[in-house]
Write a sequence for this structure.
């Protein structure tokens, strides 16, 4: 696992902590989704556990602790995460952690705990976790990783040193994407960067899963509905079969871009700059008031997406509304 090109400044800050022997007992690494926060947390953990780190603080990869890390069996490296996606970190997990922290370390370096995603601590587990922070074990560093630090209790935040990863420079991300997937063109990499709202890892996932052609296909269907050349129910049924696609997120960006095009914005502010010509066309043939109403419906639909409501019916409601407002303009 290499250090990501947009994390060098944050790594220097972490390296200074270690170099100056000021290693935080509690550290929060935060930032938007898809920036590699967990990657940075793990690199720092490996550096703390390594017996012979390199001059830049990166772990050597060859010593006994590094070999144990590679085998995922290092006794002084503890990971706490949700047992099921979307669920809370349970109080039982934190109680087990408290027990582990009372045991003697196996190596003379550090013991490191990574909790990810930290915002998934519920009230009970967060209260139990406070004991770790109030009564820290010797040479133990706890690293919290979070997309939404505002959802972490203030009593925990106040005890953490913080590092935030800002949105990375576009060129760094595009260069990195092309290295990861050499089949990508610069234009494709730029499109992926924008449609994933500047999320490098989501952009990489999209490129590996060939999501860009699928998004283009879906947008063409969106256009066809606007031209009254496709029936919204048929398209909703087709889109419902695309279980792994973030279709509602795509629709959200198309609508926000149409709103922006009403104000003659430039392409750099769009989520979908490669679709600008079509988006301008849609902006000229729809009323802004109607677009805002559709936007409200889509935001409500995003909230419903995680409920038991049938996903196809959600798509049908959006597409029927889109068809209807275009019908009024034709």
């Amino acid at each position: 696992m290499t250090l990501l090109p947009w994390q060098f400044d944050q790594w220097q800050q972490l390296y200074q902590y270690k170099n100056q022997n000021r290693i935080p007992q509690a550290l929060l690494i935060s930032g938007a989704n898809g920036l590699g926060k967990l990657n940075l947390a793990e690199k720092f953990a490996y550096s703390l556990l390594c017996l012979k780190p390199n001059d830049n603080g990166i772990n050597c990869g060859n010593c006994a602790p590094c070999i144990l890390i590679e085998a995922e069996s290092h006794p002084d490296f503890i990971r706490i995460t949700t047992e099921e996606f979307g669920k809370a970190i349970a109080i039982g997990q934190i109680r087990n952690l408290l027990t582990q922290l009372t045991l003697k370390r196996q190596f003379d370096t550090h013991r490191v705990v990574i909790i990810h995603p930290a915002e998934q601590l519920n009230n009970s587990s967060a209260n139990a976790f406070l004991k770790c922070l109030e009564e820290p074990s010797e040479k133990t560093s706890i690293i919290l990783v979070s997309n939404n630090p505002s959802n972490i209790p203030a009593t925990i935040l106040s005890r953490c040193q913080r590092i935030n990863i800002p949105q990375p420079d576009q060129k760094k991300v595009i260069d990195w994407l092309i290295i990861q997937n050499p089949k990508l063109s610069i234009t494709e990499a730029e499109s992926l960067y924008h449609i994933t709202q500047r999320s490098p890892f989501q952009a990489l996932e999209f490129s590996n899963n060939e999501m860009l052609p699928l998004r283009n296909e879906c947008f063409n269907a969106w256009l066809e509905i606007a031209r009254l050349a496709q029936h919204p129910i048929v398209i909703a049924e087709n889109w419902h079969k695309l279980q792994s696609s973030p279709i509602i997120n795509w629709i959200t960006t198309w609508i926000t871009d149409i709103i922006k095009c009403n104000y003659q914005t430039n392409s750099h502010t769009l989520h979908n700059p490669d679709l600008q010509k079509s988006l301008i066309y849609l902006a000229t043939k729809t009323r802004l008031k109607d677009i805002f109403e559709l936007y409200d419906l889509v935001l409500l639909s995003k909230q419903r997406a995680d409920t038991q409501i049938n996903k196809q019916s959600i798509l049908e409601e959006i597409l029927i509304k889109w068809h209807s407002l275009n019908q009024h303009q034709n």
